[in-house]
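Write out the 3D structure for:
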Amino acid sequence: MNRLDRYVARTLLMAVALVMAVLLVIGALFQFIDEQGSTGVGHYGMGEALVFSLLNVPRFALDAFPAGVLIGSLLGIGALARSHELTAMRAAGMSRWRLARSALAGGLVLMAAGLLVGELVAPRLEQLADQRKALARFDNVSFAGAGGAWLRDGDRILNIAERARGNEFGGITMFELDGQQRLVAVAHAERASNNARGSWLLGDYRESRFQGEGVAGVASGSRQIATSLSAALLQLAAVQPSKLSLRELHQAMAYYGQNQLDDAAYRLAWWSALARTFAIPVAVLFALPFGFGSMRSAGSGARATLGLVVGLVYFFLQRTVESGTVVFQLDPLLLACLPTFLLACAAAILLVRTR
């Protein structure tokens, strides 16, 4: 990569950084305003609402990243076009494909940054924000939502109603099946903690076991059980799939597949996250042709408007496809990648037609 390649990539990165900074400030402000309806309950005040909004900024950045990259790329390409730098590069012998390669290098850097935030930053801060908010508002904290989270481990089926701190859980109901998939016991524990690898300690344990025509009840202060479920996996089950990282989604899909459970929600979240990630360099390539032709002298306002419109269309199309996949039980792979595929086709057609 020579100096011109680095200059093009750096110009695009700076423009995208500026746009994302503006979007993040707006997103955090709207999140903070939206949280005002939750303040005043328990110890959840203005300070906690501000912390909650700031901790959710990385998740908002991920959701807004494709649109932000598109707007920033259009503005960066526009700046090069209005200063006639693109024209000078073309006159010096740089083909449109060479410029596309330079722009793609910047797009790959942005994609790597998105993966870093999505894998290491956003999920952890978002879960921390939910935990802080719940602990501040309520004493009895539930993270699993209505009905709790359901998991299967061999002949056991578990319902997790609550998640406390770290490796501690509460409100766990356990159903035990025999070899013919008949219910043989129902148990409930007020709390559970991960003692060691493959071992769980259940507190305030009560069990009803079906024996012939009768039912035998057992109540004990605690019971230790051996299970393949780790604390990390239980935490994944108590979090919405869309809030998980790609690594966590892969772990959840592997577990659901091993136990022959429906993993459609996790597969949809997996492919949707991948599609949005690959949409980042595609958005950069989509912006490049607008530096030539009739758009090369367009102002920043026109380019920002174009990027906003295309970004919103992509966002709503992605959301519509994801909802349709769940409702109509369609193939997550094909539909989750459809918006990104259409954007890539449009970018390829525009680049080919560029003179």
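The chain has two domains: 3-138+265-353, 149-238.
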